[in-house]
UniProtKB/TrEMBL annotation:
Record-linked SUPFAM superfamilies: PLP-dependent transferases
Cofactors named for this entry: pyridoxal 5'-phosphate
InterPro entries, sorted: Glutamate_decarboxylase (IPR010107), PyrdxlP-dep_de-COase (IPR002129), PyrdxlP-dep_Trfase (IPR015424), PyrdxlP-dep_Trfase_major (IPR015421)
EC number, UniProt record: 4.1.1.15
Keywords per UniProt: Decarboxylase, Lyase, Pyridoxal phosphate
Residues recorded as bearing N6-(pyridoxal phosphate)lysine in the entry: 269
NCBIfam families tied to this protein: Glu-decarb-GAD
Protein name: Glutamate decarboxylase
Species annotation: Agromyces tardus
Catalytic activity: L-glutamate + H(+) = 4-aminobutanoate + CO2
């Protein structure tokens, strides 16, 4: 019996490890699987530590049982409902759970779906708006040209994509010191007969603050009484739709407001599931035009599908159901409350350092932002602090606010499940140390080439 000497060779003396792996062309010959694994494994060590990434909203920890379930189900195809009927049933369980959580009037008369993430969910919500508007306009014998969608200038980039891809005019209501979020006060200047809907954000990406959906709905009610225009709301609850039901149940932002036609969320944010899964739910069956639902024959089965994607992972849907079963209302409340407690603990400590003013404190979603106190220094800015913290392993982004507030730079922390009080103290020590180092400068730091830490 002969043995392949390359298999017996120490890992880093094998042929594949003794050369630079090809980057842009497929190799001519096979490679030992353990060698290929080691190359990819080693390259990903150059990535950051996900647990220390305080820029992302996306879940980075679930636990051993979830990891095992993920490994057992990663081959399931969500679209293949004939092959995986129980996975399909679990998907329906999940969106009906969310519909109930969001106070839909009649769960049996609602409809929803899973998506790859909340960006796809938002696009489906926007498409339903556009198609309902088109159908109503055609029925009235009116033009269907030039639809528009109204939103805050602080929306996530997925809404810019929706308007670009599906040819809808975006009408951005600028944020300002006087109106730091869309609050309904300026809507009359933007709404007309071509408006397909208004987007309200439960958890603005820049600051973590809720937009007052109830006030926006009231403004649209008054506008309808004055003009006859009946404008629906889509709530982009990417983060807040999985926070408010547990931490602020008294806030009316969801299907309790008749003007809210649809709600989307990210299962992979505060839904506490690995990426990528999102959800969208419509309050009634007729809020989603039937022509947006496709019935296809696939692998011997006939099934409805209303997502933009076709084949996609089923494992994250199963993980969402696992979290609903595992945590329940009590567990979700405990986790979200701890995240908020840590966020408020951090924001209070940062506000007491002397160099910073809080822009938000984590009282809505567990996200907060701060700015450098005016007049504190001319020698450094928040981009420099972000760079210094990155050297310690922390990713804490700095970026300008949008539009009328673009001269204001803020820094933001997203507190997710897994950022313990102990880690928070380590972070505070590093912020204090690096702030003191920067305050000790006798001349200005260079500013060439500074870039925002993220763009949404």
């Amino acid at each position: 019996m002969t043995h392949d000497p390359s298999v017996l060779a120490p890992t880093y003396t094998r042929a594949g490890e003794r050369a630079v792996a090809p980057r842009y062309t497929i190799p001519d010959v096979e490679m030992d699987p353990t060698t290929a694994y080691q190359i990819v494994h080693d390259e990903t060590m150059l990535d950051g530590n996900a647990r220390l990434n305080l820029a992302t909203f996306v879940a980075t920890w679930m636990g051993d049982e979830a990891d095992r379930l993920f490994a057992e189900t990663y081959d399931k195809n969500m679209i293949d409902k004939d092959e995986y009927p129980r996975t399909a049933a679990i998907e329906e369980n999940c969106w009906r759970i969310l519909a109930s959580l969001w106070n839909v009037p009649d769960v049996k008369n609602s409809i929803g779906t899973s998506t790859i993430g909340s960006s796809e969910a938002c696009m489906l919500g926007g498409l339903a708006f556009k198609r309902r508007w088109q159908l109503a306009r055609r029925a009235a014998g009116k033009s269907t040209e030039k639809p528009n969608l109204i939103m805050s200038s602080a929306v996530q980039v997925c809404w810019e994509k929706f308007c670009n891809y599906f040819e809808v005019e975006p009408r951005y209501v600028p944020v300002s010191d006087e109106h730091p979020a869309l609050d309904g006060s300026q809507l009359e200047q933007y709404v007309d007969e071509n408006t397909i809907g208004v987007v309200a954000i439960m958890g603005v990406t820049y600051t973590g603050k809720y937009e007052p959906v109830q006030e926006i709905a009231a403004a649209l009610d008054a506008l309808q009484e004055k003009t006859g225009l009946d404008i629906p709301i889509h709530v982009d609850g990417a983060s807040g739709a999985m926070i408010a039901p547990f931490l602020q149940p008294e806030i009316e932002w969801d299907f309790r407001l008749p003007r809210v036609h649809s709600i989307s969320t990210s299962g992979h944010k505060y839904g506490l599931v690995y990426p990528g899964v999102g959800w969208v739910v419509w309050r009634t069956l007729d809020a989603l035009p039937d022509e947006l639902i496709f019935r296809v024959s696939y692998l011997g089965g006939d099934m409805p599908t209303l997502a933009l994607n076709f084949s996609r992972p089923g494992s994250q849907v199963l993980l969402q159901y696992y979290q609903f079963l595992r945590l329940g209302r009590e567990g979700y409340t405990a986790i979200q409350q701890e995240c908020q407690d840590v966020a408020k603990y951090l924001s209070k400590a940062i506000s007491e350092m002397g160099a910073f003013d809080l822009w938000s404190d984590g009282s809505d979603i567990p996200v907060f932002a701060w700015r450098l106190k005016p007049g504190h220094t001319e020698n450094w800015n928040l981009y420099h602090l972000s760079d210094r913290l990155r050297m310690k392993g922390w990713l804490v982004p700095a970026y300008p606010m949008p539009d009328d507030m673009s001269d204001l730079t803020v820094q933001r922390i997203v507190v997710r499940n897994g950022l313990s009080r102990d880690l928070a103290d380590e972070l505070l020590d590093d912020i204090r140390t690096e702030t003191a180092w920067l305050d000790g400068l006798s001349s200005p730091m260079p500013t060439e080439g500074q870039q925002p830490g993220f763009h949404h």
